[in-house]
Amino acid sequence: MTLSLLSGSAHPQLGQVIGEILGVTPTVCEVERFPDGELQVKVGPLQDRDVYIVQPTGPPVNDHMVELLLSIDACRRENAGRITAVIPYLGYARQDRRTASGQSVAAQVFARAITTSGADRVVVVDPHTPTVETLFNVPVEVLTAVPVLATALEEHIGEDAVIVAPDLGAVKLAEHYGSVLGRTVVIVRKTRYSGTEVNVEEVVGDVAGRHVIIVDDMISTGATIRAAAGAVLERGALPDMVVAATHGLLVPANNADPVFPKIRRVLITDSVAARPTPDTDVPLEVVSIAPLLADGIDRLHQGRPLDDLAMRR
Ligand code: R5P
User: Fold this and answer.
1) Ligand 1 pocket check: which of 218, 243, 279 to mutate, most ligand atoms within 8 Å of Cβ?
2) Which of 51, 95, 142, 309 is the most buried (most CB within 10 A)?
3) Pocket of ligand 1 contains residue 217 by CB under 6 Å
4) Which segment of 49-58, 124-133, 249-258 scores lowest on mean pLDDT?
5) For ligand 1, what atom is nearest to the CA of residue 195?
6) What percent of the chain has pLDDT over 90?
7) Which atom of ligand 1 is nearest to the CA of 217?
8) What is the distance in A from the centroid of ligand 1 to the CA of 24?
9) Is the CB of 219 under 6 A from ligand 1?
10) Taking a C-beta distance cutoff of 8 angstroms, is the pair 12, 274 a contact?
11) What whole-number distance in Å separates Cα of residue 152 and Cα of residue 284?
12) Considering only CA atoms, which of 126, 181, 135, 179 is closest in space to residue 309?
């Protein structure tokens, strides 16, 4: 089967760079928006092609998710031979279980929708939890940006630096950074009260007089990073902290606080398209995951394993 690379409207630049690495020209799906808000997606002829659709479902999450579903369906109706949804940032992955009665499990709803639309395989990068894999009934390749971010971190961190997991959900990720960078891991225990409010209950490990690197899968409003930074500062951490997160959604918070106080540098990837940052004082460094995704696509196309690109379980 011949490889076809399709790019959704969420992040055509990423599709372009992946295409350059693979030596193929990506086709940008035609997306029309009707006056009532409905989307219509059109793709070209794809008969018997091995199709990879690159579409992160970052903000606006619902539009990008619906566009992804319609793109997969359009490819299926064009008789694509195999369809792989490459979703560098998987929106709704945080809603993988109910935290209170009466809630839906949105991660499962969208996983089902992606597979029933016609995806034969899914590729994601550092999803909120690797267990998203169990929500899909097609194979899921869970890649990680930790090695590329860790390499970029090396020039910003001193010998004494410790890795901080800003919540229990980030512990596995922090351990991965810890083992790549040879640093110990400190854990912050937080409770989330709403989409923008979190509170720190405990810090497990010693940060006094140390430089810290806070790592997480994503930064949305920055509330988690802000709370963790405040907690480690209170316990004597040095103020010029570094943050690394795979997905920099950087959505505006609903308060007037600076988004990242006392933080020297924030490293994110290009898993979602760049957005204006709420706090322009923060030196933001964007590390590309296009080589990671291109390598993953190339290996899938050739039927080779992706183990060394995968997130630690
Ligand atoms: C949640 O557990 C995630 O791993 C992130 O810590 C969180 O979603 C980031 O969101 P925010 O920046 O709004 O705190």
Assistant:
1) 218
2) 51
3) yes
4) 249-258
5) 13
6) 81
7) 4
8) 35
9) yes
10) no
11) 12
12) 126
User: Which mutation among 128, 172, 224, 225 tests ligand 1's pocket best, with the greatest number of atoms within 8 A of CB?
Assistant: 224
Task: Give the pTM.
Answer: 0.94
Work out which ligand 1 atom sits closest to the CA atom of 170: 4
42 noted as active-site residue: no
Please write the tens of the pLDDT for every residue from 183-239: 999 999 988 777 677 788 899 999 999 999 999 999 998 889 989 999 999 999 999
- The four Cα atoms 143, 177, 96, 133 give a dihedral, to 10 degrees, of 30
Higher pLDDT, 28 or 260: 28
Amino acid identity for residue 55 in this structure: Q
